[in-house]
Amino acid sequence: PQRSPYMCANRYMFLENTRLNKIKFSKDQINELKQVIEEYRHKNYVPLNKIAYKLGYNLSTVRREWRNIDPNVRRGPWQVDEDEALLRSVLKQSNRGTINWNLVACDVPGRSQTKCYHRYIHLTRKHLKTEFQPKDDQLLIEQHQLKNARWSQIQPLFPGRSCYTLQNRWRKLIQYRQINELFNSQQLNVQLFILKQFPAKITVTPSYNNLYHAPNFQLTYDQLQCLTLNSLFKQFCNEIDLHSVINRIGIRQFLNKLSTSTNIQQIKQLFFSLKRTRQKQLK
């Protein structure tokens, strides 16, 4: 009850695939797998999808067993001839929008498509700067809009960057944009207080035309939103003089104080009252 047919089918497939992944093939099943592979294979290409469908097993199970019994599988460090074959195969697909790693693996006997992909990223990363440049961020944003988040088509434009690296960078840029938009919509005194009390370790020249740069303060979007929605905080920023602030308070302590305070004087004591240790030092 209270489950749709799709949810039941999806759950059944998950449980069945989990069970099949734990199955270890017997000798008869391994011999049957070898016969079917010899029947379907074309040179170095083995259509494991068709084989898994015919045998009635999960694709990952068939792939795992075939990797264990395939005599042509090569393990260990890559050789120079393998790297050359890999780069030649990728170069042949330079006119394509995306690289078909199944075809690449066929040109590199003994290596799977996943290993070919990771090896290619490793080879092209040698001459790559680790940090993203502003022009890289701009190109990533433009290509994400043009190609509708098809990371396999975007990745060839960034040699040495994997799809996961580009996706994580894009998510971080979106977070930067949300934080900068919320920060720029605040009053000037609120902005000055945040920049002085919670400065970033590395300052970036602000640009209102480009909202995808890292903010100059160490606040997450949720923390910044909690501050800006608090009426006591806005009143506090309007009444204080930033040059007379004595103490620097962490963001977590400040948010806790805001949530428990009932008047503005309780918040001012955090920043304008000398602590006992400092009072002794001044004496």
UniProtKB/TrEMBL annotation:
<dbReference type="Pfam" id="PF00249">
    <property type="entry name" value="Myb_DNA-binding"/>
</dbReference>
<feature type="domain" description="Myb-like">
    <location>
        <begin position="70"/>
        <end position="124"/>
    </location>
</feature>
<dbReference type="InterPro" id="IPR009057">
    <property type="entry name" value="Homeodomain-like_sf"/>
</dbReference>
<keyword id="KW-0539">Nucleus</keyword>
<feature type="domain" description="HTH myb-type">
    <location>
        <begin position="70"/>
        <end position="128"/>
    </location>
</feature>
<keyword id="KW-0805">Transcription regulation</keyword>
<protein>
    <submittedName>
        <fullName>Uncharacterized protein</fullName>
    </submittedName>
</protein>
<keyword id="KW-0804">Transcription</keyword>
<dbReference type="GO" id="GO:0042795">
    <property type="term" value="P:snRNA transcription by RNA polymerase II"/>
</dbReference>
<keyword id="KW-0238">DNA-binding</keyword>
<feature type="domain" description="Myb-like">
    <location>
        <begin position="129"/>
        <end position="174"/>
    </location>
</feature>
<dbReference type="GO" id="GO:0001006">
    <property type="term" value="F:RNA polymerase III type 3 promoter sequence-specific DNA binding"/>
</dbReference>
<dbReference type="InterPro" id="IPR051575">
    <property type="entry name" value="Myb-like_DNA-bd"/>
</dbReference>
<dbReference type="InterPro" id="IPR017930">
    <property type="entry name" value="Myb_dom"/>
</dbReference>
<dbReference type="InterPro" id="IPR001005">
    <property type="entry name" value="SANT/Myb"/>
</dbReference>
<dbReference type="GO" id="GO:0019185">
    <property type="term" value="C:snRNA-activating protein complex"/>
</dbReference>
<dbReference type="GO" id="GO:0000978">
    <property type="term" value="F:RNA polymerase II cis-regulatory region sequence-specific DNA binding"/>
</dbReference>
<dbReference type="GO" id="GO:0042796">
    <property type="term" value="P:snRNA transcription by RNA polymerase III"/>
</dbReference>
